[in-house]
């Protein structure tokens, strides 16, 4: 109790030195300090006298037996326990075993975790067939389905350039139309390459395959545009299966065209025919 009196006397001395307006506030502070000191003193007395009845009743007959050689840990209570906890928390030299899981370990686990998402695509048979047709360069013409390989496409470009390179876009489209009409007709081969290179009874169907012009021409952008437009279905041919440039045709061929075929129309330098 002497300690409490000493602390109280010190605070009263300080109160006399300050202004009257602040004494009421200081009095409250002093009262609080006295209460804290009293509590600290009480806990200190309990610690000095041993365990109180509450701790004893809880711990009796439940503490595991200790080895005689193992030093007994000192139990701290009250203010001593608080001060000890503060000192331990400031100790950066000693190894501390913390309970719980490291935050870093959790984050690392999240970063390294793998997320697998399955993709389910159900391609119908119809879709698979369409994809296969695209891979085979199948191209839809005005009627039915026209199959065209890379070889067919290159052959078509060259024959249109060789036969109608001096014509306008429409005239070139018509030549491509005639070749498409032949592919679709049962009277001619069923591929562009075979139609262009057909030799019926020793008679070639397109003169550029005979004189070699089909292999020497340079395909222009205009011809490429015309061929692509014909592939897209642009057709002015009226079903023509033949065309002839009379100024450069042999006389016996001219006679056959006019006598054995049906004349349809003329466009540019070409006359267009079909079977009667």
Explain the overall architecture.
The chain is rod-shaped. A hairpin with a 4-residue loop joins strand 1 and strand 2. The chain is mainly alpha-helical and 276 residues long. Helix content is 53%, strand content 9%. Helix 1 packs antiparallel against helix 2 and helix 8 crosses helix 11. A three-stranded antiparallel beta sheet has the order 5-7-6, with helices on both faces. It has twelve helices and seven strands.
Name the structural class. Answer: mainly alpha
Q: Point out poorly predicted stretches.
A: 48-61, 96-121, 134-143
| SSE topology string | HHHHHHEEHHHEEHHEHEE
Main β-sheet, in a few words?
Answer: 3 strands, antiparallel
Helix content: 40-55%
- % residues in beta strands: 5-15%
Shape: rod-shaped
Helix run count: 12
Multimer state: single chain
Mean model confidence by pLDDT: 73
Number of strands: 7
Strand order of the largest sheet: 5-7-6
Report the span from N to C terminus.
137 Å
Rg computed from alpha carbons, rounded to a whole number of angstroms: 53 Å
């Amino acid at each position: 109790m002497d300690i409490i009196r000493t602390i109280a006397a010190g605070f009263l001395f300080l109160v006399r030195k300050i202004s009257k307006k602040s004494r009421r506030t200081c009095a409250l502070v002093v009262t609080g300090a006295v209460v804290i000191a009293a509590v600290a003193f009480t806990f200190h007395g309990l610690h000095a006298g041993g365990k109180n009845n509450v701790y004893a009743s809880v711990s009796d007959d439940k503490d595991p037996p200790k080895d005689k050689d193992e030093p007994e840990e000192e139990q701290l209570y009250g203010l001593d326990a608080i001060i000890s906890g503060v000192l331990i928390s400031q100790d950066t030299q000693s190894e501390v075993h913390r309970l719980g899981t490291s935050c870093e370990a959790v984050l690392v686990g999240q970063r390294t975790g793998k997320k697998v998402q399955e993709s389910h695509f159900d391609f119908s048979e119809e879709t698979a067939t369409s994809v296969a047709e695209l891979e085979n360069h199948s191209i839809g013409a005005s009627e039915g389905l026209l199959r065209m390989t890379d070889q067919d496409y290159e052959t078509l470009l060259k024959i249109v350039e060789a036969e109608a390179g001096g014509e306008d876009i429409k005239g070139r489209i018509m030549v491509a139309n005639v070749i498409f009409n032949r592919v679709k007709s049962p009277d001619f081969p069923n591929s562009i390459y075979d139609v262009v290179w057909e030799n019926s009874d020793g008679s070639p169907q397109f003169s550029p395959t005979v004189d070699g012009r089909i292999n020497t021409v340079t395909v222009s952008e205009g011809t490429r545009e015309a061929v692509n437009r014909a592939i897209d279905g642009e057709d002015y041919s009226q079903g023509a299966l033949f065309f002839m440039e009379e100024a450069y045709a042999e006389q016996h061929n001219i006679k056959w065209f006019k006598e054995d075929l049906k004349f349809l129309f003329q466009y540019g330098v070409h006359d267009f025919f079909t079977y009667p």
